[in-house]
Amino acid sequence: MFILEKAYAKINLLLAVTGKRVDGYHQLETVYQSLALHDTLKLTKITEDRIVLTCDDDHLPVNEDNLVWRAAQKLKLLYEVKQGVHIHLEKKIPVAAGLAGGSSDAAATLRGLVHLWQLPWEEEVITNLAAQLGSDVPFCLYGGTALGTGRGEKITRLPQCPPFYVVLANPGFYVPTASVYAALRPDDYSREYDLAGMLAALKTKNCRQIISHLLNMLEPAAFRLHPAVKVLKTKMNTSGSALLSGSGPTVFALFASRAEAEKLAQVLLRERYKVWLTETFQPHVVGGLPND
Ligand code: C5P
Prior knowledge:
Blueprint: E1 2-20, E2 26-46, E3 51-55, H1 67-78, E4 84-90, H2 101-116, H3 123-133, H4 137-142, E5 145-149, E6 154-157, E7 165-170, H5 177-182, H6 186-189, H7 195-203, H8 207-212, E8 215-216, H9 219-225, H10 227-236, E9 242-244, E10 251-255, H11 258-270, E11 274-279, E12 285-286, E13 289-290
Parallel strand pairs: 1-8, 3-4
Antiparallel strand pairs: 1-2, 2-4, 2-5, 5-6, 7-10, 7-11, 9-10, 12-13
Helix pairs in contact: 1-2, 1-3, 9-10
Bound molecules: cytidine-5'-monophosphate.
Cytidine-5'-monophosphate (C5P) binds next to β2 and α5.
């Protein structure tokens, strides 16, 4: 018996840092949005009582250094599961790129194993476990459009974002999230921002207003560390709809028209960037769990 789970990438339409916390994390208000771009996990029961992880990308660890393995181990211990699993991960989302690929893989592992091991979906318990794995993991459990507060782990669902075509591009190097947060200076984020305006734009499905409220307070720190990312954003921002995704280095640009998105993607491909053309995505939620 096996289960297939899709793990969707995310962007942040708005990421405001409101302060540094005593635990070292930063306090956030962020609007998450899922993308159609996804990894796929195949979870198969095995007779041995252990977790076996394989991956089509040889560069990724397949032990406790992988968030998928840690998610499976935490769930297994919590519910004292005496069965094993083989998880095969097919990567499409670029790694350490600001798209929450690892977080989404971990969330998909939790969803898949709850089914495979026939555990109860105890929302609070699973969400807490997800938050221990990473700040973005609780959002990735359900996806869609949502507000994240706290360090990003406290989730409130929002009205669905209207559909956009999304061009993603990155310069092809990794950027660890912690390095960007460590480079943040208080003057990068001690400023006003308009979350209410973004929420109103989502509610009224006003694409132009959504684009005019795009904001990421991690941009100054990421651009100081990696000036090439600022160059990329400038190239992608011809219609004012480009923004650094999370802590980067991926930059996204939103388009109502596929033709315009394809035009930008072609330009970036010719300049040898890594480029993806995808769309915003809303998973169907069935019985409290995403079911596409
Ligand atoms: O939560 P996660 O493990 O994904 O975070 C990775 C790193 O990013 C943290 O160790 C921390 O340095 C930084 N971070 C932060 N504030 C947040 C989220 C992440 O400082 N709200």
